Amino acid sequence: MLGAPFFQAMLTGIVTGVLIRYSMLKRDYRQYPSYPHGTTIHLAMAFIAAVIGSVAIPALAEKEFTAVTFLALAAAQFREVRGMERIMLRNLDRLNLVSRGMEYIEGIARVFEARNYLVMLTSLLVGGATYWGNIFYGLLVAFIAYLITGKLKGGKNIGEIARVREGKISFKGPNLFVDDIHFMNLGTDNIKNKYLQRGLGVIIEPFDDNARATLANVGQRMAIAHDAAALLGLYKDVDTAEFTPLLRRDLDTGRVGMVIVPIEKDIELLIEAIKKVPVLESAYRSPLKTIIGRKASD
Q: Is 290 or 180 the better-scoring residue by pLDDT?
């Protein structure tokens, strides 16, 4: 017979799990969910994960082994959630003037799946601590879990791996340059004048070979262009592809140049926007952690 300790542990685990998930939701310009319905969906999934996690240890203690099988079912369901998020974001990405890119989308979908597992694990630990001890121990575990998830939801950004500075836009005939990095050929004087009047150029200089390899990733550069355009706006419509923001790499030095024609022409804001772009998990490279990589960098 399930007693009061069981229900106390379950309630504590559920409340803690949902609150932890709410604290991890990122409702800003970068990613879904940005609207109430998206937030509701993820909180509902957090509730399910919290219920399953919070009953696991008390159910084992009460010899209710059937309840534990729901852990495996939940894992399968969360993988399905990741797939649905991926498909939804891909469909939305087709309508963006500047695409997020597949790697950015995959990273968002992976984060949503992983955070449901974090909710389940948090509720499991909190429920177990409450059941075997008391609510004080449960709240102590909840506080520790909150600190840990706060660390896990953060990651590196471009400002931590590279120096971002202003670059000078110039033309040599029809060829567009930012400093000495060549971008493209523009044939009409009207478009060239728009770049000279409204355009901004930026140079991203990697701090080491790890950053150099990361910035070489096309998906990472697409993420930089997307976030910069989202923050500063873009002087572009569907029929003006020549104003699409571009990033090009200097093959000799690993520097990356960027050119953009924003609505808000403010180089300081652009530099800050680029510094805050997250380093994608799938794009991050660390050749310096290997013996061969360290020898190659000498």
A: 180
For the sheet with 162-167, list strands across it. 162-167, 200-206, 256-260, 246-249
Domain that residue 226 falls in: 158-297
Element of type H or E holding 175: strand 175-178
Other beta carbons within 10 angstroms of residue 243's beta carbon come to 20
- In terms of Cα–Cα distance, which of 226, 228, 216 is closest to 284? 216
Are residues 64 and 18 part of one domain? Answer: yes
State how far the Cα of 282 lies from the Cα of 268, in Å rounded to an integer.
28
User: Hey, which of 6-15, 140-149, 173-182 has the most confident mean pLDDT?
Assistant: 173-182
In a shared domain, residues 31 and 75: yes
Determine the Cα angle at 164 with ends 161 and 169, to 5°.
145
Burial class (CB in 10 A: 0-12, 13-18, 19+), 17: buried
Examine the domain organization and report whether 145 and 163 are in the same domain.
Answer: no
The model carries a pTM of 0.83
pLDDT digits (tens, 9 = 90+) for 7-31: 788 888 889 988 888 888 776 555 5
Measured CA to CA, the distance from residue 19 to residue 33 in angstroms comes to 16
> Among candidates 126, 88, 96, which has minimal Cα distance to 29?
96
| 17 contacts 119 by C-beta, under 8 angstroms | yes
Same domain, 19 and 111: yes
